[in-house]
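Put briefly, the fold is written as integer tokens. One such record reads:
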Amino acid sequence: MNDARAHSYRCHKKPPPLKKLPSTDANLQLHVLRAHLQMLMWKAADQRDLPEETRNIANFGWNIEGSAITPAISTAPVAPQELLDVVSCSCTA
């Protein structure tokens, strides 16, 4: 996915909005883990108990802090440092 992301960015005369770029490898992996957990839960919907492997959702791309459950967010860089060094923001503050 990182290669597809870089290719999509390079192929446009004007860089596309970041939300239009494919996900990074790390974020895709977290998404697949969460989707896999959902599938396991759906498959067990007619069972009395969930499968043992689904008991710890932290293994499936979720963070648990007290009673709050939030999606895990990747800490991997969104682009190579060489690209980040040459990209500039056109924001006006």
About this structure: The radius of gyration is 18 Å. Strands lie at 62-65, 68-71. The first helix runs from residue 2 to 10. DSSP finds three helices and two strands in the chain.
